[in-house]
């Protein structure tokens, strides 16, 4: 589906995965939220504030690299708005714009999968939603860190609702 997306949807998807926030919070991120080596996110649903490190002991994070690349592309295209996620014209991306681009990319990817003979994948693609990126982010990092990234006060909520993969364990031998 990512391959079928327009650049601004890819940007929204990448940012959502990197910061693990809800769609509305992803669309609200602005350059003014970048302060002193952090991306500051205020969750709209809970009003919880998070500071995401842009580097660790001098090593830039994937989030930092993404933001730098995004800002370079925006500068080349003459986009000057403070919102990080914009359309190709530089207008802030609304929920409806995100939805329209998501639906188009999802349908194009499903059609491609169906044409390749993989109907099961086409069905899964059609069920995939933007909000599924948040659980994916939570499932790919350590539980305590995932809980803090998602803004949960208890790991139990993260484990019960957002972790969609099983725990990693070693066999007996």
Terminal Cα span: 39 Å
The helix fraction, in percent, is: 40-55%
CATH class: Mainly Alpha
In total, how many domains does the architecture comprise?
1
The side-by-side strand order for the widest beta sheet comes to: 1-2-3
In the CATH hierarchy, what is the architecture at level 2? Orthogonal Bundle
Q: How would you sum up the major sheet? A: 3 strands, antiparallel
Per DSSP E runs of 2 or more residues, the count of β-strands stands at 5
CATH homologous superfamily - what is it? Intergrase catalytic core
Write the H/E string, N to C. HHEEEEEHHHHHH
Envelope shape: globular
Which structural class is indicated by helix and strand composition? mainly alpha
Low-confidence sequence ranges: none
Summed over residues and divided by their number, the pLDDT gives a mean of: 91
How large is the count of helical segments? 8
Radius of gyration over alpha carbons?
A: 17 Å
CATH-derived topology: hpI Integrase, Chain A
Assess the beta-strand content as a share of residues.
5-15%
């Amino acid at each position: 589906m990512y391959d079928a997306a327009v650049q601004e949807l890819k940007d929204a998807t990448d940012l959502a995965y990197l910061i693990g926030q809800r769609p509305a919070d992803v669309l609200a991120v602005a350059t003014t939220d970048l302060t002193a080596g952090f991306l500051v996110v205020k969750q709209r649903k809970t009003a919880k504030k998070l500071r995401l490190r842009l580097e660790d002991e001098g090593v830039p994070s994937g989030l930092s690299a993404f933001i730098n690349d995004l800002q370079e592309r925006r500068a080349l295209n003459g986009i000057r708005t403070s919102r990080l996620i914009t359309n190709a014209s530089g207008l802030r991306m609304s929920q409806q714009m995100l939805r329209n681009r998501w639906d188009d990319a999802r349908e194009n990817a499903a059609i491609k999968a169906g044409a390749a003979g993989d109907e099961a994948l086409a069905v899964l693609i059609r069920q995939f939603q933007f909000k599924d990126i948040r659980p994916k982010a939570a499932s790919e990092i350590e539980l305590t860190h995932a809980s803090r990234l998602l803004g949960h006060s208890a790991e139990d909520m993260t484990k019960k609702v957002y972790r969609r993969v099983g725990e990693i364990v070693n066999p007996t031998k």
